[in-house]
Amino acid sequence: MTVAPAVAAAPPGASAAAGPARVTVLSDPGDSPQAVAELAGRHDLDHGIAVCQPHPGATSPSVLAGDLLVALGKLPGALAAEHLSRRGWEMAALWLRAEAVQDLVVLHADRLPPGRWSDLATLAAASGTRVWLVTRTIGMTASQRAALTARAVGPPAHRPWRAALADLPAAGPRTGECGFPAVPDAEFPLFLAAAARLLDPAAFAQVDTVYRDTYARARGHAGALRHASGGDCARAVLQQLTIDAASAGEVLTRLRAAQAGLFAGGLLLDLRPVRHPPWELRTGCLRPRLDHATVARLRGLADPVVAAAVTLSRATAMMPCQLCALRRRDVTGDGAAGTPVRGLRARDRHLSDGQRAALYQLRNAGTPLDADTARVLYAVAHLPGAFTEGDAPDPVTVVALQQRGIIRRRARAGYLELTDDARFSLAPGPPDPDRSALTLVAPPLSS
Predict the structure, then answer these.
(1) What structural domains does the chain harbor?
(2) Using an 8 Å Cβ cutoff, are 23 and 131 in contact?
């Protein structure tokens, strides 16, 4: 049987010395269905709001802990099924923090004994969550007030239930499987401009949002990855940037944005179309590894270790031996690899199935930039007004870039500059200062 903690049960890694709990009692004297419907409709874990409806007989700590976990998206009976019955309150505190729940609404709280109010106040203090207790009475009983005061809550606030609606925003729209626009077969220096030219405004806005977000995230790795060695973590960063993409078009958009973002930091990411179709195309099944149904099932697991192991296995396709070799420092809180990427020349064996599928669908893409051509392009982009044809080691590279519509010669000035399309695709943000050289590194190929 679960025993409610005598002190705040902080989740692993969190300080047990939490601040005072924030508890507000909401009165609903008529026990109106409207109040239940309005407050229950605020449930939105994606925006930090959880609504708990305790069992009528939730007088024991174990039952209430199970109800809290159900409100946090866990499967009913998960504590017993996963042999966690003695750790219910620990799991509740952990998942409150993991789901970043800011507000916990407990309906029909007056049916809970005062001891459970004290437990909820303890949980609120441990997790930093604001708790709203909805009651059918106008005021609190002496025992209820004493339970909250005993947990160093201070004078508990008491408000009509309607007053809480302003602090509890309505649930946001549910994100489902939405279609991503088909994107052009264009190399990264011209990709975004080609998409803007070929797509309608609404479709391009969707592509542009994904592109700019991925560009910024990839560019954030560029400074540190210059000093990293090996290519194993390169795959991890590429996977991090594309793991939640739901179509080959979105994967390709993210890959092109990653190329542009790393290029802004002086790294050339060479992505070539693969020769053999990946299994998704052979079986006619192309979907993200972590689709919404899979995420919902994983979210229903109460044990964080099991949830993490299954998620890593599903998302990364790691073998059991690889999962066993993982160390805690290999994964950071934001999901990024502990070691930054250095860059890579990607080959089939270095790409995930989704990335391979996206590249396999390229039919009319031109030959990827080689290192010498990319260095000329980098110099033109990062030395504005100063790089001329005579500065290029090989004039052929200048001609090749001009033929592709990536650079042009400034009339009467003599220097080379990016075309409008290339500038639009390569520089959504300002370039890194004091960069005049391009680095191309490649990890060892898998055998």
Answers:
(1) 22-166 (3.40.50), 191-360 (no CATH)
(2) yes
